[in-house]
Amino acid sequence: MSNRYGLEIRSASAADAPGLAELLGACGIAIPPRALALRIEALRQEGGSALLALAWGPPSGLIVLHWHATLVDAHPVAVVSTLAVAPEERRQGIGRLLLKAGAQAARSAGCGVLRLDAGPEPAAASLRGFCAATGFAETAARYERPLRKRS
């Protein structure tokens, strides 16, 4: 997709799952590579995009977007559900480049707005400054509940 300062941003594929599982694990999200490969393929089929940033070696970052129509928005809404940068590569502009590439993918899909799920505290607190610096405004609280019983 793009290449800047030796950093390539491209669509993720099932073949990228082992490296992405390692990246996500370093960010506190444990997903086995096989399950991750299946999820990446499902995402591609269901109206979304997973973009990864590669320098030299394993993936440096990942952004996952989903888009959907709503009754109140004139155009589809894109939601960033995952934005992860390897801990040792943070504060180098990788998150901004991933966000820019994600916004371009959302525009290409016809979306009119980009939302970012910050998730529960304390992760949301560390993301707040980044969101403000990249043009996001806090709009509302998010509530959720499980749809299946926990085992």
Describe the protein.
Strand 3 and strand 4 form a beta hairpin. This protein has a single domain (2-133), classed as Aminopeptidase (3-Layer(aba) Sandwich). Helix content is 32%, strand content 25%. The protein is of the alpha+beta class and 151 residues long. Helix 1 packs across helix 2 (33-45). GO terms for molecular function: acyltransferase activity, transferring groups other than amino-acyl groups. Residues 7-148 form the N-acetyltransferase domain. Keywords: Acyltransferase, Transferase. It comes from Methylobacterium hispanicum.
In short:
This protein is an alpha+beta fold. The protein has four helices and six strands; from the N terminus they run E-E-H-H-E-E-E-H-E-H.
Tell me what the CATH architecture is.
Answer: 3-Layer(aba) Sandwich
Q: How many structural domains can be distinguished in the coordinates? A: 1
What is the level 1 CATH name?
A: Alpha Beta
Coarse morphology = globular
Number of helical stretches of at least 4 residues: 4
Beta-strand segment tally: 6
SSE run: EEHHEEEHEH
Computed over alpha carbons, the radius of gyration is 15 Å
Overall average residue pLDDT: 82
Oligomer: single chain
Kindly report the spatial arrangement of strands forming the biggest sheet: 1-2-3-4-5-6
Residues in β-strands, percent: 25-35%
CATH topology, what is it called? Answer: Aminopeptidase
**What is the CATH H-level superfamily?**
Gcn5-related N-acetyltransferase (GNAT)
Can you tell me the residue ranges where pLDDT is under 50 for at least 5 consecutive residues? Answer: none
Classification by helices and strands: alpha+beta
GO molecular function, one term: acyltransferase activity, transferring groups other than amino-acyl groups
Keywords: Acyltransferase, Transferase
InterPro entries: Acyl_CoA_acyltransferase, Bact_Acetyltransf, GNAT_dom
Organism: Methylobacterium hispanicum
